[in-house]
Design a protein that fits this description.
Layout: H1 2-23, H2 29-36, H3 41-53, H4 56-63
Length: about 70
């Protein structure tokens, strides 16, 4: 399980770096939580694919689309 955790953390880190590069700024706590709250490989693959195809306006909306209480 520990190897999966390392893989997930590294994958999330890569996605976050990609998001910051596209947005040209640091992510907000909400935007970071959007990525960090996903731990399944399929979910992370979908997020990574989506991020790679979005411009900054689309990405900002996507990262802020989740509303946790």
């Amino acid at each position: 399980m520990k190897n999966n955790e390392k893989t997930v953390n590294a994958w999330q880190d890569k996605i976050l770096v990609d998001c910051e590069r596209i947005l040209q700024r640091q992510l907000t706590d909400v935007e970071t939580r959007f990525v960090r709250s996903r731990e399944g490989f399929t979910a992370l693959e979908m997020i990574e694919d989506s991020v790679s195809e979005m411009n900054s306006v689309e990405l900002k909306a996507y990262l802020n689309s989740d509303h946790f209480g």
